[in-house]
Amino acid sequence: MLFTYNDCIKEYGSDYQLKKALSDQKLYKVEKGIYSSEKYASDLAVVSLKYPNAVFTDESAYY
Q1: What is the reported pLDDT for 58?
Q2: DSSP per position, the chain
Q3: Interhelix angle 5-12/15-23, nearest 10 degrees
Q4: CA angle 56–39–21, rounded 5-degree value
Q5: What span, in angstroms and rounded, lies between the C-alpha atoms of 26 and 13?
Q6: What whole-number distance in Å separates Cα of residue 15 and Cα of residue 8?
Q7: Which residues are within 8 A (CB) of 23 and not within 5 positions of it... i.e. 6 or more apart?
Q8: What's the CA gap between 31 and 5, in Å, rounded?
Q9: Which of 22, 31, 34, 36 has an alpha carbon 20 to 30 Å from 52's alpha carbon atom?
Q10: What percent of the chain is modeled with pLDDT above 90?
């Protein structure tokens, strides 16, 4: 599951606790401001989180 930075701060309480969760591998940093509970995140899921109003076309629409 993917989370934004704000979601993680609500869950863990502070930036320090977030960094601790990252070092304990409870969370994984996908890219700036996006975190995942799984080691590998789908590129399509990342794009849909970053751009919630995006319209997918071509082969990605069928994925």
Answers
A1: 76
A2: -EEEHHHHHHHHSSHHHHHHHHHTTSSEEEETTEEESSSS--HHHHHHHH-TT----THHHH-
A3: 100
A4: 120
A5: 15
A6: 9
A7: none
A8: 10
A9: 22
A10: 71
Each residue's pLDDT tens digit, 8-54: 999 999 999 999 999 999 999 999 999 999 999 988 899 889 998 98
Partners of 31 in beta bridges? 34
Is there a contact between 12 and 18 (Cβ–Cβ < 8 Å)? Answer: yes
Going by pLDDT thresholds of 50, 70 and 90, the confidence category of residue 63 is: low
Q: What is the pTM of this model?
A: 0.81
Which tokens sit at 4?
Answer: 């934004």
